[in-house]
Every structure is written in C-alpha cells, then in structure tokens.
Amino acid sequence: MSRKAPSGTRRADAQHNVKKILDAAIDCLSRSRDASVVQIAQAAEVGRVTLYGHFPSREDLIEAALARLLSEGDEVLSGLDLTGEPRQSLQSLIASSWLLIAQSGAVLEAAQAVLPPERIHELHARPEQRVRDLIMRGQAQGVFRDDLPAAWLASALHHILKGTAADVSSGAMNAEQAPRFITQIILAAYAPQPANPEGA
C-alpha cells in the first residue's frame, strides 16, 4: 500500500519546484519576452501540469518572475549604505546590483505586454524610489545635474543597464567590465552642466 509523503516533504518539494520554475522563467524571458509556458516548463524540467499547479496562467508566472527579481534587487539595495557621498553611493549601487536590475528590465518587457500599467508601477515603486531619492540627494548637494528630472535620470540609468546586459549576453562586453563602464557613463551623464550664458 502506498503512503503519502509527509506534508513537510510536499511543501519542500513544492517550494523547490516554484524556485526552478521562476529561475527558468527569468532565464527564458531574459532571452525572449515571448517565451512560452511550454518552453519555461521544459527549461525548469517540470511538466505543464506542475507549472500550472503553481501558476494558473502565463500572466501569473510573468508577474511572479518580475516580483522575485525586483524583491532580490530591493534586498541588495536595502543592504547598501546609500547615505554617503552621492557619487560613491551610486557607484556602490551599480556595482552591487547592475545585473539584477538589468535582468528585471528584460522580464519587465514581457510583463508590460500582459500586466496592467498600474500593477507594473506598484511592483516597481519601492526600488525606483530608492534610486530617485539618491539622485535627488545628489542634485540637492550639487554633484548631480538638476536641469533634468530625477525620474528621467533614473530611467536613463535603467536603459544603460539594459543595454549593457544585452552586450554582455551577446559577448560584446565582458561582465567584469560592465560595472566600471556603466559607472563612467552615468557619472558623466549626471555631472552638473555649466549654465548657458543668457541669450547664447
């Protein structure tokens, strides 16, 4: 007579499967925002029934993948001291979290195709606010340009991170070089701009 596995074992197995599925979803969606549930299930080495048991729809799976990436990025930011000199704090942020932020950008494209804009905004609210707060502090101290909105400067950082991730993925850039290149570009872009003489 067969015996059912203890509930603790079943929970551990379920958690393991969820982790495998989300890992596969992030990997597949990072390579193609149109990755199908079948492709993700195959990459996770689970059946579609198992996948759908945890995530009833592709939309649910994409939302969970994006939420996990953003949560991991937020954990990285939470562990950083961003209260020091703004340029040094920004450099620490990029070095510690650029890959996670770049990955979330790839998954974000998939999420934008299937999730309502208000849900996307809700998921991003906390990590985006941290970056904007750092930029605004740098603007207030005169070390970052203040002729452009902090939100736009944060968006520019996001696009550079995403482009760098694509270059690393294609082999055009070495992953070890990426944080230094990103930092140099961003610090140059964020540098205060000389005031234009009136009428120039």
Task: Note down, in words, how this protein is organized.
- By secondary structure, the protein is mainly alpha-helical.
- It has a domain at 59-190: Orthogonal Bundle (Tetracycline Repressor, domain 2).
- It is built from 8 helices and no strands.
- It has helices spanning 7-31, 37-44, 48-54, 58-78, 86-114, 117-140, 150-170, 178-190.
- Helix 1 crosses helix 5, helix 4 runs parallel beside helix 6 (117-140) and helix 5 packs across helix 7 (150-170).
- It starts with 6 loop residues before the first helix and ends in a 10-residue tail after the last helix.
What labels would you give this structure?
8 helices; Tetracycline Repressor, domain 2; mainly alpha
| Topology pattern, helix = H, strand = E | HHHHHHHH
Average pLDDT metric: 87
Would you identify the CATH architecture of the domain at 59-190? Answer: Orthogonal Bundle
Strand fraction equals under 5%
- Overall structural class, as computed from helix and strand content, comes to mainly alpha
Low-pLDDT segments, ≥5 res:
none
Choose one word for the global shape.
elongated
CATH class descriptor of the domain at 59-190: Mainly Alpha
Largest sheet: none
In CATH terms, the superfamily of the domain at 59-190 is Tetracycline Repressor, domain 2
What oligomeric state is this? single chain
At CATH level 3, the topology of the domain at 59-190 is Tetracycline Repressor, domain 2
What is the radius of gyration? Answer: 20 Å
Distance between the termini: 89 Å
Residue share in helices?
A: over 70%
- Put simply, the count of helices is 8
The count of DSSP E runs of length 2 or more, i.e. the number of strands, is 0
